[in-house]
Amino acid sequence: MGNVILDVAGVDKNFGGLEALSDINLQIEEGTVNAIIGPNGAGKSTLLNVIVGRLPPTRGHVKFNGHELTGKRPYEINQMGVARVFQTPEIFPDLTLLQNAMVPALAKRDGQFNFKILKSLYHEPDILEEAEHTLKDLDLIQHKDQLASAMSRGDKRRLELAMCLVQHPKLVLLDEPTAGMSRHDTNRTIDLLKNIKERGMTKVIIEHDMHVVFSLADRISVLAQGAIIAQGTPEEVRNDPKVKEAYLGG
Ligand code: ADP
Ligand code: MG
């Protein structure tokens, strides 16, 4: 294995009596595309929330490039180069697409997001250029001056992706980036994800639809009832009887 950029070691997460994650061990190699798949309720979003600092683990550690993330605030983790797209889009509906794309770039540069930033958006030529570039990459540039609230669901999800990529993260975590999209929008998003040639960017994509990730991932980890039941290349995972059982509810 090359450089391990993300190391999840012995992570448990309990919600009261429910063990949502149990002894998760996961190593992500720099520059690779990784998928975490599993049925609804398997613990995928919980794992992502633990990694990005939204939820403290009950036990265990998460390290990024050798630095401890456990106990750090989400914005601190973000500034270290970890960006994420949550399952529910988090955009600013009353801002234009261009403003939406500029906000995270400024937040990354300046620290915790401050609404005063909004007044100065157009006094930031570098950030403006970066935001336009990213909107172009995601096929959104033609809508840059429209309000985010006016966009279709698929466009909103791609805007969130833009808000993530504009930060040039080292590691990006996507929670069901194609959820709620039509087949056409799903395929388009998969193609965009494949074509984004961010230098050295490592991707972790959470999906409950196995077929979405087979064409995308170098490695797949399968989560079921809070535990990793299989790990490997798409081919290895596809043929694993434990995986078939988890998906067929066996
Ligand atoms: P997935 O993303 O794989 O569908 P989740 O991580 O959302 O699964 O949920 C895993 C389990 O943890 C589920 O049983 C869910 O109901 C439970 N859970 C998730 N978040 C919370 C929470 N904040 N409080 C209590 N239970 C939760
Ligand atoms: Mg989820």
Here the CATH topology equals Rossmann fold
Bound small molecules, by name, code or SMILES, are: adenosine-5'-diphosphate, magnesium ion
Total number of helices: 9
Mean pLDDT: 89
| Helical coverage, percent range | 25-40%
H-E order: EEEHEEHEHHHEHEHEEHH
The number of domains: 1
| CATH A-level architecture | 3-Layer(aba) Sandwich
- Per DSSP, what share of the residues sits in E-state strands of 2 or more residues? 25-35%
Low confidence ranges: none
Structural class assignment: alpha/beta
Shape: globular
The largest beta-sheet arranges its strands as 6-7-8-3-9-10
- The CATH superfamily appears as P-loop containing nucleotide triphosphate hydrolases
- The tally of beta strands, per DSSP, is 10
- According to CATH, what is the class? Alpha Beta
Biggest beta sheet attributes: 6 strands, mixed
Instruction: Calculate the terminal CA-CA distance, rounded to whole Å.
Output: 33 Å
Question: What does this protein look like?
Answer:
It is a single chain. The protein is α/β, with parallel strands linked by helices. The chain has a single domain (32-55, 72-248), classed as P-loop containing nucleotide triphosphate hydrolases (Rossmann fold), CATH 3.40.50. Helix content is 34%, strand content 26%. The strands form 2 sheets. It has a 6-stranded mixed beta sheet, sandwiched between helices. The protein has a 4-stranded antiparallel beta sheet with strand order 2-1-4-5, covered by helices on one side. Strand 1 and strand 2 form a beta hairpin. Helix 3 (97-110) crosses helix 4 (125-137) and helix 3 (97-110) runs parallel beside helix 5. The chain is globular and about 55 Å long. The two termini are 33 Å apart. Bound molecules: adenosine-5'-diphosphate and magnesium ion. GO terms for molecular function: ATP binding.
